[in-house]
Amino acid sequence: MLAEKNVIRALMVQTPSLPGNLGRVATTIGQIGGDIGEIETVQVGPTWTMRNITVHCDSEAHLQEILEALTLLEGVIIHAVSDDVLQAHEGGKIHMKSRLDIRSISDLRRVYTPGVAQVCREIEEDPEKARIYTSIGNTVAIVTDGTAILGLGDIGPVAGMPVMEGKAALFDRFVGISAIPILLDTKDPDEIVRTVKNIAPGFGGILLEDIGSPHCFEVEERLKEELNIPVMHDDQHGTAVVTLAAVISACRSAGIELKDASVGQIGLGAAGLAICRMFKAYGVKEVMGADLSDEAKARLTHYGGEPVHSLTELMERCDIVIATTGVPGLIKKEWIRQGQVILSLSNPKPEIEPEDALEAGASFAADGRLVNNLLGFPGIFRGVLNARSTKITEPMLTAAAEAIAACTKLGHLVPHPLNQHVHQVVSEAVETVAHSSE
Ligand SMILES: NC(=O)C1=CN([C@@H]2O[C@H](COP(=O)(O)OP(=O)(O)OC[C@H]3O[C@@H](n4cnc5c(N)ncnc54)[C@H](O)[C@@H]3O)[C@@H](O)[C@H]2O)C=CC1
Ligand SMILES: CC(=O)C(=O)O
Ligand SMILES: [Mg+2]
């Protein structure tokens, strides 16, 4: 089984400035099974070169093995080893910035008092003008109660903040939306709904994130009903959109008719139930599901899916298997059938490593790093905010999934997430549906 390379370190490495020396370092790292990420030249001396090399290792012991091997190389000096991920998080990942420069007294009077009072009056007379004269229409609240942070479970909202900051950074990077994490010190659905309603005037939309099931279902439904701005639980619908897109692409490459295929979902929580609902709504006839909870299985039945008794039954019967349980290593290699599509989407660790699934005979396999809701939520919100839509509807989500699939290369499951084009096409697809239903 291939290990997971979850230990990421930046090595400050000095080598002689002669051809082949970087090659010696890279070969040594590779021979011991380390994966090289970024290489940055930070300083060039008279006879030496200093580089920052990011290395992905299986464990601390594996890292030590690599360091020891490097120190045996003649002329190579390791000056520092730092934790790249922790370092990137120092001080947090986001920061609210002024769009206007404030240098003179007249700037001050225009941006702040007394000038600002005139703008307040305009908005008081016509609240719609808040869309023009404030950032509200381009701002999304990322709301969590910390109860299902990735697959780490109920670790609380503050421990979940790095995820929320990450989502905010992605909103900014991909679609220019300003997003603000809101951490809730309550898990009570009534209180969550009341709090989100009370803060909603400051936002153009609400992204619910990592709120556990089953209370996430009630919270989202009530907020959608009671607010006149778009609300979406990312773990449900963002994930369902990207999963459907990946499966459409897999079927296209494998020449399978998706609607006639049997789809099996392991884990019927927030992500899993929404995936089943989306496949049913897309016209897939056979959608099966497994969960430890009888209530979760009853919800699947309510939406037209078929609960199965065991994971092995599901693995035997389904052409396409998706897992969102948060349980690493849940799917055994020996359960995989030749040609199956296996999407083990739990973060930070999947139910089966894609390499293992492929080795066991899967035709396509991916984990939650690749098939990730980051391909969906930025464009979906850009689209509804552009259209000034008050809802995110099922046809919009289907259009988003089809847009992602349409810009996926044959043989791939999804487009590269850093490809700006995918976020733009999702946004355009959602906006088009929003305008057509006005
Ligand atoms: N790749 C992506 O874009 C996304 C991945 N996820 C991942 O999916 C996982 C679950 O997230 P949520 O649905 O929000 O959590 P959740 O807590 O709502 O759902 C998890 C479900 O899995 C079930 N489960 C747990 N162990 C099981 C087992 N051994 N067999 C069958 N069912 C089992 C639970 O009963 C529960 O219904 C997390 O690891 C999360 O990171 C979630 C959203 C997006
Ligand atoms: C990607 C994501 O939203 C999750 O794993 O919870
Ligand atoms: Mg999430």
Automatic annotation (TrEMBL):
Pathway membership, UniProt: Amino-acid biosynthesis
Positions contributing to (S)-malate binding: 347, 372
Keyword Metal-binding among record annotations: yes
Record-level Gene Ontology MF annotations: malic enzyme activity; metal ion binding; NAD binding; oxidoreductase activity, acting on the CH-OH group of donors, NAD or NADP as acceptor
Pfam family of the protein (one): malic
Active site, UniProt feature: 112 (proton donor), 167 (proton acceptor)
Keywords recorded for this protein, A-Z: Metal-binding, Oxidoreductase
PROSITE patterns: ACT, MALIC_ENZYMES
Ligand binding (a divalent metal cation): 209-210, 235
InterPro entries the UniProt entry points to: ACT-like_dom_sf, ACT_dom, Aminoacid_DH-like_N_sf, D-isomer_DH_NAD-bd, Malate_Decarboxylase, Malic_enzyme_CS, Malic_N_dom, Malic_N_dom_sf
ACT domain segment(s): 10-84
Cofactors, names only: Mg(2+); Mn(2+)
Superkingdom of the organism of origin: Bacteria
Textual note on the cofactor: Divalent metal cations. Prefers magnesium or manganese.
Family designation: Belongs to the malic enzymes family.
PANTHER family attached to this UniProt entry: NADP-DEPENDENT MALIC ENZYME (PTHR43237:SF4)
Protein name according to UniProt: Malate dehydrogenase (Oxaloacetate-decarboxylating)
